[in-house]
Amino acid sequence: MTRVVGLISGTSVDGIDAAFVEIAGSESDLTVELLAGATYPYPEKLRSQILNLCAGGSISMAEFALLDDAIARQFAQAAQAIQKHHPPAATLIGSHGQTVYHRPPAPRPPAPLHLDAPWHVSTNTPLGYSLQLGRGEVIAHATGIKTVSNFRVADITVGGQGAPLVSKIDACLLSSPTQHRCIQNIGGIGNVTYLPPCQGNWLDLVSGWDTGPGNTLLDLAVQHFTQGSQSYDQDGNWARQGTVCQPLLNQWLSHDFFQQPPPKSTGRELFGWDYLHQCIAKSQAYSLSPADLLATLTELTVASIEDSYRHFLPKMPDQIFLCGGGSRNLYLKERLQSRLQSVDIQKTDQAGVSGDFKEAIAFAVLAYWRDLGICGNLPPVTGAKQAVLLGNIAPC
Ligand SMILES: Nc1ncnc2c1ncn2[C@@H]1O[C@H](COP(=O)(O)OP(=O)(O)OP(=O)(O)O)[C@@H](O)[C@H]1O
Ligand SMILES: CC(=O)N[C@H]1[C@@H]2OC[C@@H](O2)[C@@H](O)[C@@H]1O[C@H](C)C(=O)O
């Protein structure tokens, strides 16, 4: 048994999810017991600095370094707080950190590199770029616990998207011998892991990808309509009062990201303020109320999930297990169920894994695997050329 703390702040940038877990086994015999889970909100000033950077704001390198370490200190505090009433202490921390920029690999090879050209025309590379702040060295130093961080770069180095990384953990913890399952996260961004029945060479058949916006556009629209006094549409109650504008939804769904086959990943760079402003501009032609726009944005999340299943899965699932904050949006859940009437939709909690802390648990497992020398990525999911060890180890 190894006691591990898993930490992540996701694309909603609402705070740090921490999971204190006890892990045993390796892959097919992996077991994880959740001892404690909690979310520690960021101080408001830190959150707005992060959101500003994610939205393309400029800061100096000195400010950048301070921000990196301010985030790391918040993560270290979360790692200490989550263990407080549950001795003995963890011997390992897996920290995803805070994504501030994500650029998937180029869909096709870039033009050949001209070594005699000036540097600014010779920088294009087929590799993706993904940056998470909150360096593990500071977390290890502050807590005295060995910390694994920077999980995405190794997958990117071998040509992968660097995301989604949760799929192998989903496969080990949530597969069924008889059912075709989808594990659907609806966080700021949505992602899915498809799990065929776990028999024979099933692990080779697991697939997954980012489905597109989860809550980001909804949250930004609510902030826009309330001048910042509300941050999300609780239970989907506002959207429920509106009517979906089908022609507008069809326009939005024609976006390249939704047509692109997996492997694929995305973030606030694509589905952020600029995209929302374009959505609002296109909606002017239909004279929509705020409720109508929210209903249509909710439908975008739901329809993009359904369409991606219909286009990219070998078979529609028997069951969907939801996780992430969007699984609390009752209206969104009802819309998904009404589009997928024959599918049994539940939360991952009903299959034994907390939907609120699944991502934090996943980074605890990835750190544990890194420590044991077990690869963490699934190449068919991320598009990597091979399975690799994920994460850099900072000793304490
Ligand atoms: N009761 C609720 N009703 C509607 N939406 C909710 C509710 N509770 C949470 N949410 C939504 O969930 C979001 C947070 O989800 P979550 O914490 O899973 O995101 P994240 O982990 O930051 O994202 P990602 O998985 O993309 O990294 C909130 O911003 C809000 O939009
Ligand atoms: C770059 C980045 O942080 N991507 C996140 C984001 O949030 C949801 C979706 O987009 C997901 O693919 C990924 O995180 C999860 C934890 C993953 O890698 O599996």
From TrEMBL:
Pathway: Cell wall biogenesis; peptidoglycan recycling; Amino-sugar metabolism; 1,6-anhydro-N-acetylmuramate degradation. Gene3D superfamilies: 3.30.420.40. Its EC number is 2.7.1.170. One of its GO terms (molecular function) is ATP binding. It catalyses: 1,6-anhydro-N-acetyl-beta-muramate + ATP + H2O = N-acetyl-D-muramate 6-phosphate + ADP + H(+). Transmembrane segments: none annotated. InterPro entries: Anhydro_N_Ac-Mur_kinase (IPR005338), ATPase_NBD (IPR043129). It comes from the Bacteria. ATP binds at G10, T11, S12, V13, D14, G15, I16, D17. It is an enzyme of class 2 (transferase). NCBIfam families: PRK09585.2-2, PRK09585.3-2. Belongs to the anhydro-N-acetylmuramic acid kinase family. This is Anhydro-N-acetylmuramic acid kinase.
